[in-house]
């Protein structure tokens, strides 16, 4: 099962390494990881996407809560939340394919952020499923390069900390 885990922790050297180490010790693969400061400059939010059993997830959450620098751990998957990912994709296109590409950009609500020599750089943001569907709609041989941020997420409603 896919889990999105949000960890609020003190912004200090080595904290990321200790959190990632817990996943490694349990044999839990990290599919994506995003880290950035919160509105409090002394705290960072780490959003981790991983797949595994509920039992292993429970163990990891318990271990994360034992780390001194961790303030709060939430399994966003089990609550009402908003999640987003950003992807930049360089896609080659002939003039005919360019029309199709422009239609896909409109259908998926994307943005063309750069065009040079019939190479379009497209910005796609949304849930991972949307980004994957966009990629599935593109001829694979036309995809030059992609860069994805990984998932970030936040619970809906009242602040939890």
Which second-level CATH architecture of the largest domain applies? Answer: 2-Layer Sandwich
The top-level CATH class of the largest domain is Alpha Beta
Portion in helices? 25-40%
Termini, distance in Å?
26 Å
Low-confidence parts, pLDDT < 50 over ≥5 residues?
Answer: none
H/E order of the elements? EHEEHEEHEEHEE
- Percentage beta strand: 35-45%
Number of helices: 4
Please tell me the total number of domains: 2
**Which class do the helix and strand fractions yield?**
alpha+beta
**CATH homologous superfamily (4th level) name of the largest domain:** ACT domain
State the oligomer: single chain
Molecular shape: elongated
According to DSSP, the number of beta strands is 9
Average residue pLDDT: 89
Q: What composes the largest sheet?
A: 5 strands, antiparallel
Using the coordinates shown, work out and report the CATH topology of the largest domain.
Alpha-Beta Plaits
Explain what the structure shows:
With 161 residues, the chain is α+β, with helices and mostly antiparallel strands. The protein has two domains: 78 residues, 2-Layer Sandwich (Alpha-Beta Plaits), CATH 3.30.70.260; 72 residues, 2-Layer Sandwich (Alpha-Beta Plaits). The chain contains four helices and nine strands; from the N terminus they run βαββαββαββαββ. The strands form two sheets. Strands 5, 6, 7, 8 and 9 form a five-stranded antiparallel beta sheet that branches. The chain has a four-stranded antiparallel beta sheet with strand order 2-3-1-4, covered by helices on one side. β6 and β7 form a beta hairpin. The longest helix has 14 residues. The chain starts with a strand and ends in a 6-residue tail after the last strand. Pathway: Amino-acid biosynthesis; L-valine biosynthesis; L-valine from pyruvate: step 1/4; Amino-acid biosynthesis; L-isoleucine biosynthesis; L-isoleucine from 2-oxobutanoate: step 1/4. Dimer of large and small chains. One of its GO terms (molecular function) is acetolactate synthase regulator activity.
């Amino acid at each position: 099962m896919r889990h999105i885990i949000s960890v609020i922790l003190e912004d200090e050297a080595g904290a990321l390494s200790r959190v990632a180490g817990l996943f490694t010790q349990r044999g839990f693969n990290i599919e994506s990881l995003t880290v950035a400061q919160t509105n409090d400059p002394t705290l960072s939010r780490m959003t981790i996407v991983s797949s595994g059993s509920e039992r292993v997830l429970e163990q990891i959450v318990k271990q994360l809560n034992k780390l001194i620098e961790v303030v709060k751990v939430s399994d966003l998957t089990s609550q009402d939340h908003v999640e987003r990912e950003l992807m930049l994709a360089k896609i080659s296109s002939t003039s005919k394919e360019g029309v199709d590409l422009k239609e896909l950009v409109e259908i998926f609500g994307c943005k063309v952020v750069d065009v040079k020599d019939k190479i379009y750089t497209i910005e796609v943001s949304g849930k991972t499923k949307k980004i994957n569907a966009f990629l599935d709609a593109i001829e694979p041989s036309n995809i030059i390069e992609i860069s994805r941020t990984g998932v970030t997420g936040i619970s809906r409603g009242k602040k939890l900390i």
